[in-house]
Amino acid sequence: xxxxxxxxxxYITSPLNAFLIGCSVFVFLLGLAPLSYIFDSNxxxxxxxxxxxxxxxxxxxxxxxNKNKFIIVNVERKRLRRNFFIVLTIxxxxxxxxxxxxxxxxxxxxxxxxxxxRELLEQTGSSPLGMLSSILYPSCYALLFYLFFNAKYKxxxxxxxxxxxxxxxxxxFDSLLVGSRSITLLYFMFVFLFFTVVFGSKYSIKSKxxxxxLFCTLIWASGKLFIARTMxxxxxxxxxxxISGYATFVKLDPSIIPYLSNNIESFSxxxxxxxxxxxxxYLHGMFEFIYMYNETGGKGMGGGxxxxxxxxxxxxxxxxxxxxxxxxxTSALYRPGVFTTLLGPFYSDFGAYAPLxxxxxxxxxxxxxxxxMKASLSAIFLNQFFCIVLFxxxxxxxxxxxxxxxxxxxxxxxxxxxxxxxSEFKLVK
Length: 429
Prior knowledge:
The protein has helices spanning 15-32, 43-60, 77-105, 114-124, 128-136, 139-153, 158-168, 170-178, 181-199, 205-232, 237-243, 257-263, 267-296, 310-320, 325-330, 343-350, 354-373, 377-391, 404-421; strands spanning 7-11, 35-37, 70-75, 250-252, 425-427. The protein has 19 helices and 5 strands. The two termini are 25 Å apart. The strands form 2 sheets. A 3-stranded antiparallel sheet has the order 1-3-5. A two-stranded antiparallel ribbon has the order 2-4. The chain is globular and about 60 Å long. It has one domain (7-427). The longest helix has 30 residues, at 267-296. It is mainly alpha-helical. The mean pLDDT is 87.
């Protein structure tokens, strides 16, 4: 076992850097993707976007001191193992409750296709058990940190490593039941960022090859999954990519269609289609937001917080037995089922006041980032989560989508246990 009396280096990702890199990737892909765009811009819209971006950055500038810096911590092995087993227990409990809720109470089956399972989940609605499981099971993401930490510092027996590995995969399994690619993407982002916390951002050739392989595999799997989903409906994947909701303002370039038509079922066709389709998903949110803003005249949807903080309302509705929650939630969305960037849900809820809320949102992220720099492990979890939210801010709100608010709630829950039991790490001054 590793001697934990020695000091250990952890690398904390800067939320501001994550935001700037995410915007750069978006602009880069916007210019290179073989897609055509439909939008109607105006000065008022441009000014609103700039004010929102400035407000968010204003809330994040307090993290300027944190540019992917590292911290030196002293680890007490006994506390680390104790807190690890608490996280593992919460993860197992949450995963088990979610399986019971979905398979026993809500009737989904492994033999069903994605759409049948989704329809069953929508028909049965939320329950207190489902809400509890949704709050508990995101601890599976935190297990990834312990796996990487153990890979470097060896504090777990092999049997616990194997158990932890399989439990940590539960979010991926859960997403495959309903064909959700956003949760799978979120999972791989956690893999990348928790790896960075332990090993730093200067990767060996072996690590680069592994991540590149995972990235390419994810693209191919995404294309294959999309093709399988559309064929279940008897649709052509290419036609679907032209007429689906997310493709309303982001169309395939005509020059790429003949190649896709002739190679759609080959490995190369699935891979290239995956790249193009991911580009559509990645880019359409901004154009959906532009459309929503223009159609609502800059006034928002009057959600009053129901979109961004729907978990609170969902908990109340589940306990009260109200069955029309889906209607109440989607009534605050202009076009349900599409991305609208991180800004979209804030605009839907708060309209002209969204820039002010975004500034407070940035300040909240700064608070957890500072806590992370003081060696709070739960704050490190939250910091890395918010880095994912900010990286994809031009694309989607992972604060709302992919169970983001549940992840936030779960990591806050872990911070309570950490305070009660004592922190795993002590910052070395």
